[in-house]
Amino acid sequence: MDIVQTQDLRKRYGKVDRVCDLSLHVPEKKVYGFLGPNGAGKTTTLKMILGLIHPSDGGVTLFGQPMDGKNRLSLLRDVGSLIESPSYYGHLTGLENMVVAARMRGLGMAEIDEALGAVRLSEAKDRRVREYSLGMKQRLGLAIAILGRPKLLILDEPTNGLDPAGIQEIRELIISLPIRYGMTVLISSHLLSEIDQMADVVGVINEGQLIFEDKLSALHALSQQALAIRTTDNHAAGELLTAAKVAWQRSEDYLLLNRLRDDNVARLSQILVAKGIGLLRIEERQSSLEDIFLRITGGAVSL
Ligand SMILES: Nc1ncnc2c1ncn2[C@@H]1O[C@H](COP(=O)(O)OP(=O)(O)OP(=O)(O)O)[C@@H](O)[C@H]1O
């Protein structure tokens, strides 16, 4: 079952659709990476899923139930979230902050201890939060979000501003959540490398539109695209390809073609040899994930 589904979700600010016909499918007990450049509409989408802002059109289904004004609060009881920077009381300790959050949800010390342990803040729990490092504050935000093991966790760029060690810690925690607690995690990021290391499923948003949604492996599979050939006469080979209506481009000593079926590769080599052009190398080129991302977003992305 999909834990989150959106149906043609739309958000219009002024005259512009910032989120447009967006239909997401977040499968159960997976990490869903919601990837897109700054300003693509990630936060706006997550806020609509959390009922924090109203969609201009379309709807949100959580745990198989269409969310409406009546069931919103009961559905959101099973959702933990961290959107933008975590809110906390600096003059209180980590533990006291957790107690405040736990009380609001009717939870007790057992849940608090579990969440603090999961983010490795047990030892620092009696220190005032204003003395915490940024990474510790972020982990406290996460501890509050996972209090009581919600079925769904929604995180908006949770590693923003953290140092590499802090990023690694958060990443390991997120990956462990579906296995450890059976949680489903929906996490946004503008960093391809980050999503690549965490997600099972990826949704790519660009200018408010979902332009890709599939398993991470499917995104990788897109990468076996190019065939590189090197011949004794690349110039003549290029002309032959153009005449045969095969698209190609030059890359140093190679001609790059889209991936061809085996029988077409065989035919291509015959044509070249028949014209006296020797085939020196034929290689399958794996374009990097960055290349793919640039291609599907039309280049408008920070990596
Ligand atoms: N309340 C608002 N009023 C008007 N425009 C808004 C509002 N909130 C967001 N926007 C615009 O909607 C677009 C999408 O913003 P959003 O914050 O969802 O993007 P994002 O993908 O989360 O990017 P970032 O990573 O930079 O936060 C942006 O152009 C933003 O300026």
Structural overview:
The protein has 303 residues and is α/β, with parallel strands linked by helices. The chain folds into 2 domains: 2-220, Rossmann fold; 225-286, Alpha-Beta Plaits (2-Layer Sandwich), CATH 3.30.70. The chain has 11 helices and 15 strands. The chain starts with a strand and ends in a 7-residue tail after the last helix. Bound molecules: adenosine-5'-triphosphate. Residues 13, 18, 36, 38-44, 190 line the site of adenosine-5'-triphosphate (ATP). InterPro entries: AAA+_ATPase, ABC_transporter-like_ATP-bd, ABC_transporter-like_CS, P-loop_NTPase. This is ABC-2 type transport system ATP-binding protein. GO terms for molecular function: ATP binding; ATP hydrolysis activity. It comes from Eubacterium aggregans.
Q: Care to give the gist of this entry?
A:
The chain is α/β, with parallel strands linked by helices.
Query: How are the strands ordered across the major sheet?
Result: 7-8-9-4-10-11
CATH C-level category of the largest domain: Alpha Beta
Count of the domains: 2
- Terminal CA distance: 32 Å
Please give the share of residues in helix. 25-40%
Number of helices, counting only DSSP H or I runs of 4 residues or more? 11
The chain-level mean pLDDT equals 90
Largest sheet: 6 strands, mixed
* Radius of gyration over all CA atoms, rounded: 25 Å
Order of helices and strands: EEEEHEEHEHHHEHEHEEHEHEEHEH
Task: Record keyword descriptors for this entry.
28% strand; elongated; six-stranded mixed β-sheet; five-stranded antiparallel β-sheet; Alpha-Beta Plaits; alpha/beta; binds adenosine-5'-triphosphate; 15 strands; Rossmann fold
